[in-house]
TrEMBL record:
It comes from Acinetobacter gandensis. The lineage of its organism: Bacteria, Pseudomonadati, Pseudomonadota, Gammaproteobacteria, Moraxellales. Residues 228-286 form the Protein translocase subunit SecDF P1 domain. It is a multi-pass membrane protein. The keyword Nucleotide-binding does not apply. This is Protein translocase subunit SecD. Residues 454-620 form the Protein export membrane protein SecD/SecF C-terminal domain. The gene is secD. Keywords: Cell membrane, Membrane, Protein transport, Translocation, Transmembrane, Transmembrane helix, Transport. Its main location: membrane. Part of the Sec protein translocase complex. Interacts with the SecYEG preprotein conducting channel. SecDF uses the proton motive force (PMF) to complete protein translocation after the ATP-dependent function of SecA. HAMAP family: SecD_B. It comes from the Bacteria. The chain crosses the membrane at residues 470-489, 494-514, 520-540, 574-591, 597-621.
């Protein structure tokens, strides 16, 4: 019955680590309000905590243990009701330059946090989380698609040599001027042959023949449906990029999307990234830029030439502008992959972009005859300005949301050669901003802007009473199993019970390390793991009994019991592990949670049921020379 020293050392290390890293799960989190910058690169300091405390004090809202870490302020409050009041007060007091979000603050002791110990995350069904309700701007979805259709139509008419005097877009209506009715009829016939997505209205005017185009009802419905579905897909991709586990993203009605984030998350970052409707446009700098941009002020002067637009350069506050061609080379929808890094030339932040096949073709065609000219990267962001208007009768503050668009040229570089599917964007303010831009491009573009309609904390979806009953049933089951093991196997049963406790601590530790969320199906996986771990010890104990009945000495029976039961235990655990892996590979949501917990539990039970129990048995019986009886 010799047992190597390195195994004792391994068990001791596992016991210490499991105990330390399982302890944080005993400390419940408390509601808090988190404040961070509206942009990823915005830097805030400790003064924001003092300003927030003054705002809450003026509203008679108490906070405690306020802190400032990782460029964000965290103010803790006593209840979820106070948390909502504090959030509204801070949002009104701080303005649009900050993101105020609900969060859950850990209460884990500082000495545990310093060694990286953190509580295991709980899913929506056990913990609850943060609920966002976002509304898709359908009018903007139509207007954005109409702009694209107008540009495509202008190009198609020219390619097919259909004459027209002008093509303008106003209030989602395309108005085309023709020299005569024959040219207008040719355009109408062309539109009927190519998709027929417009309703056509021929109008006689003093300037010649006019044709007005609007989307058909079927086309508008198609665009609106696409906008919701595309935004839904993009939100899911962004949440996956953020690493939020067990999140719920689904539609509500015809134009709203519900997002629910479980457990402790950086909800301020999630709110900023989820609600940020940003896109890129690649345009050529106009050849007339130097003529219309004042060299001293950097601002556009006079009436701009047709087909051009002036935008802020580098930042909204820079006071500089560039004149760009109205026609876009391509948009961020053509981006297939994006990653952030540092430029070897300037040392600043950059985003490396890979376009899809169609995007690479468009970029190549646009830059073939533009070598030596400048190409600008236009960053367009749709936002909402929140203001509060007092009701003249009741005097209560009413929230008013006004949408607006910010357009900034973040980069304008000279085209050195014909570009293809891969290139880079430089000139970004910070690595954080580059990483966030790469995330949004990688996750996909939103088809239309979205605005936060509601934000609140949600309780456990199963109901607290059901959760309490589930936890109670697990506790009762564990106690009954422990009693049964002690009654039937005496000291060996007591050793098996200790191994079960170690098994649970190891499961909690590993799940907190990998950031997995524990859900009710996960608890079911833990229960099954307990049963399998007990089953392994039952096999070992029964095998030891059989060996003693066949005449083996107690020490011989112990060695034979562990050695001969090992193959059976390993085979049964391996087959169960393979099934759990298949569930994880093809399952979603709760199925994955169950599979992850079961796989972790199987690995831990193999260690505790065989290695840990045998080490304890060795310590108790290994040095006894005249051993004639076992407590089994």
């Amino acid at each position: 019955m010799r047992y190597p020293a390195w195994k004792y050392l391994l068990i001791l290390v596992v016991l210490v680590i499991s105990t330390l890293y399982a302890l944080p799960s005993l400390y419940p989190d408390e509601p808090a309000v988190q404040i961070s910058g509206a942009k990823a690169g915005t830097q805030i300091d400790q003064s924001i905590v003092q300003k927030a405390e003054q705002i809450l004090k003026s509203e008679n809202i108490a906070s405690h243990d306020n802190s400032f870490t990782n460029n964000a302020a965290l103010l803790r409050v006593d209840s979820s009701e106070i948390q909502l009041k504090a959030k509204e007060a801070l949002r009104r007091g701080l303005g649009d330059n900050y993101v105020v979000a609900l969060n859950l603050a850990p209460t884990t002791p500082e000495w545990l946090q310093k060694i990286g110990a953190k509580p295991m995350k709980l899913g929506l069904d056990l913990r609850g989380g943060v609920h966002f309700l976002l509304e898709v701007d359908m009018d903007k979805a139509i207007s954005q698609r109409m702009e694209t259709s107008a540009a495509d139509l202008r190009r198609q008419l020219r390619d097919n040599k259909i004459k027209f005097n002008s093509l303008t877009l106003n209030n989602n209506t395309i108005t085309m001027q023709f020299a005569n009715n024959d040219d207008r009829s040719a355009a109408m016939d062309f539109l009927r042959r190519n998709g027929n997505e417009f309703t056509q209205q021929a109008v006689a005017t003093t300037n010649g023949s006019t044709l007005r185009l609007n989307y058909t009802d079927a086309r508008r419905q198609e665009i609106q449906s696409y906008a919701v579905n595309q935004n839904l897909t993009t939100l899911r991709n962004r949440i996956n990029e953020l690493g939020v586990a067990e999140a719920l993203v689904q539609t509500q009605g015809s134009n709203r999307i519900v997002v629910e984030l479980p457990g402790v998350q950086d909800t301020a970052e999630a709110k900023r990234v989820l609600g940020r409707t940003a896109n890129l446009e690649f345009r050529l700098v106009s050849d007339l830029n130097d003529q219309y941009i004042d060299p001293y002020t950097g601002q556009a002067t006079g009436s701009l030439p047709p087909g051009t637009e002036a935008f802020a350069y580098e930042s909204l506050d820079s006071g500089r502008q560039l004149l760009l061609n109205r026609n876009r080379i391509l948009t961020g929808e053509r981006v297939q992959n994006a990653s952030s890094g540092f430029s070897q030339d300037t040392g600043g932040a950059e985003v490396n972009i890979t376009l899809d096949t169609a995007g690479g073709k468009l970029m190549s065609e646009a830059t073939r005859n533009a070598v030596g000219k400048r190409m600008a990267v236009l960053f367009i962001e749709n936002k909402q300005k929140i203001s509060y208007v007092p009701d003249p009768v009741t005097g209560t503050q009413t929230e008013v949301r006004t949408p607006y668009t910010e357009s900034v040229i973040i980069n304008a570089a000279t085209i050195q050669a014909v570009l293809g599917s891969q290139f880079r964007i430089t000139g970004l303010d910070s690595p954080q901003e580059a990483a966030e831009l790469a995330l949004m491009l990688r996750a996909g573009a939103l088809a239309a802007p979205m605005y936060f309609v509601e934000e609140r904390v949600i309780g456990p979806s199963l109901g607290q009473e059901n959760i309490d009953k589930g936890v109670l049933s697990v506790q009762i089951g564990f106690i009954l199993v422990a009693i049964w093991m002690v009654v039937f196997f005496r000291l060996f049963g007591l050793i098996a019970n200790f191994a079960l406790v170690v098994n649970l601590a190891m499961i909690l530790t590993i799940m907190s390390w990998i950031g997995a969320s524990l859900t009710l199906p996960g608890i079911a996986g833990i229960v099954i793991t307990i049963g399998m771990a007990v089953d392994a010890n039952v096999l070992i104990c029964e095998r030891i009994r059989e060996e003693m009945k066949w005449g083996a000495s107690p020490k011989q029976a112990i060695v034979a019991g562990y050695d001969r039961a090992y193959n059976t235990i390993f085979d049964s655990n391996l087959t169960t592990f393979l099934v759990a892996f298949i569930l994880f590979a093809i399952g979603t949501g709760p199925i994955k949670g169950f599979a992850v917990t079961l796989m972790i539990g199987i690995v831990c039970s193999m260690f505790t049921a065989i290695t840990v129990t045998r080490a304890i048995v060795q310590l108790i019986y290994g040095k006894k020379r005249n051993l004639k009886k076992l407590s089994i």
